[in-house]
Amino acid sequence: MSRAATSVQMAAAPQVAPTHRVRQVPAVTRAVAILRLLGRSEESLGVNAIARALGLVPSTCLHILRALTAEGLVAIDPETKRYRLDAGLLAIAGSVLSRNDFRELAQPELDRLARRHRVTAIGVQVIGLEHIVVVAISRPDHALRLHVDIGSRFPALISASGRCIAAWSGQPWPVLERHFRGLRWDRPPSWSAWRAEVEATRAKGYAVDEGNYIRGVTVVAAPVTDARLAVSHVLVVVGVKEQIRQIGVDALARELCAVARALSRRLGG
Question: What DSSP character marks residue 96?
């Protein structure tokens, strides 16, 4: 990172418990892939289009779609024979959100940050080194509009939040590098530069992405730890580069870290 920053102390770097190898269940994996594909698509899709996109045998794809339809997770247009997500997913998502302690605690803080600084404030849940999922968001009407909603998924190590996750993941550099190589940025940092930024993140307690992920946009992030002292969530503030500079990157980072520490304590971290 190019900016000098005042050190913001977090709890000692948490150690992540070793992950266990999970046996793949092809039918479940394919069903989830279909749901995610339909969730990303702006229009309904036919069996052949879904099968081609996911590399599935059409007959296998059809059987899975029929099962998902029977469960109310997917709906089919009887005329076009095209599939889309159905309301059954809303009931599941609603249950998750209603029982999400982090979202309940973080939302008021995100609202305050968004109002005070006219930025978009986001809370994400960490799903290992693979993905993060947006579980809370606040944005004033006049703020930078991002294509981010509750449930949006992103690669875990992307942007400032990714630097936080990498810094406290407990994973060796070769493992992190494999994930890093698959990331897509507007202005990609080199591996050596990104590694140095991850180390700086661990020292300062927060991360900053100035235009790497999205050109002209600055992202500031701070980790939230759970009862096992693992990074379970990340708080993220997003704004136009000049806007964040006017607020002050260091000042905004200190405020975000204070909120993250308070949330960590309330979540048992």
Answer: H
pTM of the model: 0.69
CATH number of 26-89: 1.10.10.10
Cα distances from 81 to residues 63, 76, 78, 124, in angstroms, run 14, 6, 5, 36
Report the alpha-carbon distance of residue 132 to residue 231 in Å, rounded: 11
Backbone φ, ψ for residue 137 (5° rounding): -155, 145
16: nearest Cα among 169, 233, 124? 169
In order along its 269 residues, the chain shows pLDDT tens digits of 333 333 333 333 334 444 445 567 888 999 999 998 998 888 999 999 999 999 999 999 999 999 999 998 999 999 999 999 887 776 666 555 555 688 889 999 999 999 999 999 999 999 888 889 899 999 887 656 677 888 888 999 999 999 999 999 999 999 999 999 999 999 999 999 999 999 999 999 999 999 999 999 999 999 998 877 789 999 999 999 999 999 999 999 999 999 999 999 988 76
End-to-end, the C-alpha distance of the chain in Å comes to 28
The C-alpha atoms of residue 62 and residue 149 are separated, in whole angstroms, by: 29
| Rounded Cα distance, 199 and 212, in Å | 17
Q: Domain 93-266: what homologous superfamily? A: GAF domain (3.30.450.40)
Domain ranges of the chain: 26-89, 93-266
DSSP 192-256: HHHHHHHHHHHHHS-EEEESSSSTTEEEEEEEEE-TTS-EEEEEEEEEEHHHHHHH-HHHHHHHH
Q: Which helix (H) or strand (E) holds 74?
A: strand 74-76
